Amino acid sequence: MGCIEEMGKDEIWAEVEKIMEDGIVTHQEYEDFLKMLDESDLDDGEKQTLRDQLKDIRDQTSQLLGETAPPEEPEVETAEEEVEAVKEEAPTKPAPSISTGTTGNQIFGDETDFGPEVGAIALKPTGTHKVIDSYTKNGRLVQIITTPREIAPIYCVTLPELKTADHKIMAKFQEMVLKESRLDPVKLDPEVRDKKFTEEIKSIIKSHEPAIQDQKLDTYSQYILMNMIGFGLLDPLLADDGLEEIMLLGMDRRVYVAHRKHDMLSTNIIFHDESLAENIIQRMARGVGRKVDTLNPLLDARLADGSRVNATIPPITPDGATLTIRKFKEDPLTFVDLIGYRTFSVDFAAWLWVVMDGLGVKPANAIVAGGTGSGKTTTLNSLATFIPETDRVLTIEDTLELQLKPHKHWIRMETKSANPEGKGQISMDDLVKNTLRMRPDRIILGEVRGSETATLFTAMNTGHDGCMGTLHSNTARETITRLCSPPMNVPLIMIPALDLILIQNRFKHPEKGTLRRITEVAEVAGMEGDQIQQNKVFEYNPETDLLEETGTPSKSIQTLAIKSGRSAKEINTEIAKRAICIKYMVDNKVKGLDNVKNIIIDFNKDSDAFIQSMT
Predict the structure, then answer these.
(1) pLDDT for position 107
(2) CB of 452 closer than 8 Å to CB of 432
(3) Which has the closest alpha carbon to 571: 346, 357, 365?
(4) What's the pLDDT at 191?
(5) N or C: which end of the chain has fewer CB within 10 A?
């Protein structure tokens, strides 16, 4: 609002017309306007007309904020008059259709009372629906509902309802907070940041609206907090550990999620404002020191919690900005969890423990292969749990995903993209070469896909055992073919340095839903002529839904026996001991990477004493 002392009559009237068009004026703005109006050179009649018009807008704003009517108010509206007032305030613009297909069916009933001011909205289901699952996350109710009109269930997060007028005044409050706040969210401890910033938001709003209703104050503060230091309506989804992925498809379309239990679901959240979505993408980009614009319309990055982000903006996605966020659990899944999900078996986990540990003489070099979303990274993270705590571990990734936090001697490295001038790029291959100068005991690559693969195999062939990584492939034989083909180009003669190939797949079961299973475990047994020989030591049995031993003698066990000076029987005894320990963790439902790692450390100190303590 401009300074009325410096305004002419026409400018003052234009300012009032703007306020009337918005339909919103805060208490402080109203008081300031009245004071300046009294000091203006308008005649008394004009002043009174403006006062009356402003008072009507102020009364509407007070009603919106749940404030008590001003004491000088001579009349009290009846219930019938209030209903008529609400009808008059309702926008005449038709609500956009909400549909995920071509039917145009409205799932959320009458989606009225929001217009162009509403950048994004969480709709409330009002039509016929059935709640098939519900839980609370961070104080917000989440419901999974089914409707007669859609095949797939819908994910609904419950947030305080905001109407168009709420969005207007909240935008005003947000501008005030931006101007008046003295807190720097970046410098605040994340554990207290939200609380301190919420207190600051409420204090600023109260200074402009002393009589605002507490419930309204809480609601506006919650939304402003999400918009300013979070990612808007994506925040409730990011807070839900039950989600694997969050997908924004564009404007005026529902956000989708991949649920760990209910698979792919549409949600009740819709973005309408392109600039709002792009602003969220820019904030994500700034968090990793990158920029997204028409010259660089792609973003591959990570959030502070480790979630992986891929974003696009026009022109490469002409229908609007898109976001795909692959979430990672706050506390990553362990092999104990994977046994519960039947991805691992107890016997297989015990065998892996011995092979990946290496008994101090020969840890296995392994690749976890599979399709997108099959769980390769989770399995790789589980394999890393078996690394002895004394080993020096270096991980290299394009986007940080691996979580080895209980391991004290761990260095993680991340590639760097080139700047706009095309300079400063640090590739995966550059980092692999650098790690060889850092005295690594273990090198783990998040994914092998290019020239770094040949460098890694060179390291494996020169004595760097215990290397691991993931690769996109569907079978063990195909994995070998891919490794030896462009762009990886690993010489065939180097392939025998690889000991294990774990194949993991994701598929849908008509009753059990989405399953992630290790379907094949193959050892590289050597070469005959120009052919790589493989031993399939474990294979998935769909009838029992278990990973079972094939009976083929394990080359890895034979190698351990020879290098450790033990018999195969002694090695199998070690496997049996570890199976007892793992079964103990499964039976006692040991959760959390820290807890699992601590038990492994205790076992490694004195396995016999540990087993005895269990009885």
Answers:
(1) 62
(2) yes
(3) 357
(4) 76
(5) C
DSSP string, 11-30: HHHHHHHHHHHHT---HHHH
The secondary structure of residue 250, as a DSSP letter, is: S
In sequence order, what E strands does 465-594 have? 468-472, 500-509, 513-528, 531-541, 546-549
Which residue has 């050892």 as its token pair? 523
Judge contact between 144 and 265, C-beta under 8 A. yes
Strands 513-528 and 500-509: antiparallel
Q: Are 396 and 428 in contact (CB under 8 A)?
A: yes
Give the rounded distance of the alpha carbon of 88 from its chain centre: 42
Q: What are phi and psi of 546, to 5 degrees?
A: -135, 150
Whole-angstrom CA distances from 106 to 90, 97, 98, 221, 510 are: 20, 7, 6, 30, 28
Q: Which residues of the chain have pLDDT under 50?
A: 1-2, 4-5, 69-105, 110-114
Residue 143 gets which letter from DSSP? E
Length of the chain measured in residues: 615
* Per-residue buried b or exposed e for 240-268, using 16+ beta carbons within 10 Å of the residue's own CB: bebbbbbbbbbbbbbbbbbbbebeebbbb
pLDDT at 117: 53
Amino acid identity, position 386: F
pLDDT of 7 reads 59
Residue 292 to residue 322: CA distance in whole angstroms: 12
Residues 6+ apart with CB under 8 A from 78: none
The predicted pLDDT at position 207 comes to 92
pLDDT at 81: 44
Cα radius of gyration rounded to whole Å, the chain:
31
Burial environment of residue 356 by CB neighbours within 10 A (0 to 12, 13 to 18, 19 or more)? buried
User: What are the counts of helices (DSSP H) followed by strands (DSSP E) for the chain?
Assistant: 19, 19
DSSP 122: E
Q: Which is nearest to 125 in space by CA: 82, 154, 88?
A: 154
The three-point CA angle 152-153-159 to 5° equals: 140
Work out the angle between the directed axes of helices 568-587 and 607-614 (0-180°, nearest 10): 40
Which residues are paired to 267 by β-bridges? 155
Global confidence as pTM: 0.78
Structure confidence by residue, pLDDT tens digits, 57-84: 888 888 888 765 444 444 444 434 433 4
Read off the amino acid at residue 558: Q
3-state helix, strand, coil in the chain (%, to 5): 40, 20, 40
Q: What pLDDT shows up at residue 28?
A: 82
